[in-house]
Write a structure and sequence with these properties.
Oligomer: single chain
Distance between the termini: 88 Å
Radius of gyration: 30 Å
Strand content: under 5%
Helix content: over 70%
Shape: elongated
Number of helices: 19
Largest sheet: none
Order of helices and strands: HHHHHHHHHHHHHHHHHHH
Number of strands: 0
Length: 495
């Protein structure tokens, strides 16, 4: 008995998790497409429980109450709705219960709810984008503050005795602040999965993954060897950036192609559904009649889909492969809705229209996100150049002045007494102190480059491998700063 009770508790915890707005938007689109096929109420709820969305758990629970405990659907929806932890699911299920009790057609109710949820999702998405903008500005301020902490500490070492413990503590705090800022960016950005796993996706996604897995370890290994040999740090960073760049560029190309496919997919759904309905044919025959020139980016995937269907490969497998090979999670999910709804007897034109609205709304919102993320990424690139340049500049000044002071300072006991009387830290900086200052400067520049790249991909939300592109750019900028800035400082001091 206790085991059954604990099992029920575990079930409740896993069954009634909060449902993100996008998941509910997807679930309602799925259900409205199925209801448009003229399915019975019980069949619609059964299919809704198999959608794979987080909201499907609620409908599985409703089916359990109906089938095992003989509840009617209005009462089952009300019972599960009152237990729902998600405010959006609670509200929807209670409205669904009232609609079923009043005798409103399920298809009409779901179509209306899908439109309402689309508007609600859009509002929440745009609020998240506004929060992302604000936190992007805040993150820039945090990075500048962290850079100033390092610069002030390095400059202070020229005037006062260097306290390495205090300096390490302050710099560690700065790194934690920058990392926390990147985490806030990730939390503020809309939560969505845009791509399928790269190892299963489009050819360019697989190439990007292969390049990243091959070249990045090679770059790190070469960097270690060159560091031991004594190659200047600037050249090492440039080499690592050059080895990361091919995978990063390929992931960038892949991400842009995926976005283009998503945009074309909405039109493809309307065209194929409309063609099947107007000609009275199946989807297989309709695909042979549509003009593929309207979908240049998606054309290879559509061609493979049509070829497989003509070869009498099971249609469900064909549409599943079509979604995965596109590399887009959106296409993979909506293709499943489209095919299943048409398979169960839905009007292809009507189903295609509903799925097209869902796809178009999603791609429009993601385009707005890319605009915000693109601005933030460009800002991070400029910030890395400024921060790295200033840090290396100040470090070079300290190193040069220390060398000049040591050359001008007399030697012997009198010199030591005079130096102590002056209490000038710069004159007493040992090679170990200079090495420490150099180490913390290098570490901070590299850490800020990594944190900036992580924040950029968090804001963007696309293919995660694309972080190698942002990291390659920030690493390249840092390497150039290590090579160029000391030369500029030397010329300034000579003049």
């Amino acid at each position: 008995m206790s085991s059954s009770r604990s099992s029920r508790k575990r079930d409740d915890k896993t069954s009634f998790k909060p449902v993100p707005p996008f998941a509910l938007f997807y679930q309602l689109t799925y259900m409205s497409a199925m209801a448009a096929a003229g399915l019975s109420r019980s069949k619609t709820f059964e299919i809704a429980a198999q959608s794979g969305s987080p909201a499907a758990r609620y409908f599985a629970a409703i089916n359990t109450l109906v089938e095992e405990f003989r509840y009617d659907y209005p009462e089952a929806c009300r019972r599960i709705g009152t237990q729902a932890k998600s405010e959006n699911m609670r509200s929807f299920l209670l409205r669904l219960s009232d609609a079923l009790r009043s005798g409103e057609p399920l298809a009409d109710f779901l179509a209306r709810e899908a439109e309402v949820q689309a508007a609600d999702y859009e509002n929440k998405y745009e609020r998240n984008l506004e929060a992302l903008k604000q936190w992007s500005n805040a993150f820039s301020s945090i990075v500048i503050s962290v850079a100033l902490i390092v610069i002030i500490q390095v400059v202070s070492s020229m005037i006062y005795s260097m306290n390495s413990t205090m300096m390490t503590g302050l710099i560690s705090t700065g790194v934690i602040m920058a990392g926390f800022g990147a985490w806030i960016i990730w939390r503020s950005a809309p939560r969505e999965v845009m791509t399928v796993p790269p190892s299963q996706g489009a050819p360019e996604q697989r190439r990007a993954l292969s390049l990243a897995r091959t070249l990045l370890p090679v770059g790190l290994a070469l960097a270690s060897v060159l560091g031991v040999v004594g190659v200047p740090l600037g050249w090492i960073l440039i080499l690592v950036a050059a080895l990361m760049l091919p995978g990063g560029v390929m992931s960038l190309i892949s991400d842009r192609r995926t976005n283009k496919k998503d945009e074309e997919f909405s039109t493809f759904l309307r065209s194929s559904g409309g063609m099947a309905t107007s000609t009275g044919t199946t989807l297989r025959e309709a695909l042979t009649k549509i003009d593929l020139s309207s979908f240049p980016t998606l054309e290879p995937e559509i061609t493979r889909l049509s070829t497989r269907l003509q070869a009498l490969v099971p249609p469900e497998m064909c549409w599943q492969k079509f979604g995965i090979e596109s590399g887009s999670r959106l296409i993979a999910d909506v293709s499943s809705i489209f095919y299943n709804a048409v398979k169960t007897g839905g009007d292809p034109e009507r189903v295609g229209y509903l799925c097209s609205l869902f796809t178009a709304k999603t791609t429009q919102l993601r385009a707005k996100r890319r605009l915000v993320a693109g601005t933030f990424s460009a800002l991070m690139t400029v910030m890395q150049a400024v921060v790295a340049g200033l840090m290396v500049f100040v470090l070079s000044i300290v190193q040069n002045f220390t060398e000049m002071v040591n050359q001008l300072m007399p030697t012997g006991e009198a010199a030591s007494a005079g130096q102590a009387q002056m209490n000038m830290a710069m004159a007493s900086l040992s090679p170990g102190d200079l090495h420490y200052l150099s180490t913390i400067t290098v570490c901070m520049i590299i850490l800020l480059a990594v944190i900036g790249a992580a924040a950029s991909i968090a804001a963007d939300g696309g293919l995660k491998i694309k972080m190698t592109f942002y990291l390659a750019i920030t690493t390249l900028i840092s390497g150039v700063c290590f090579l160029v800035v000391p030369i500029v400082v030397d010329r300034i001091l000579v003049v």
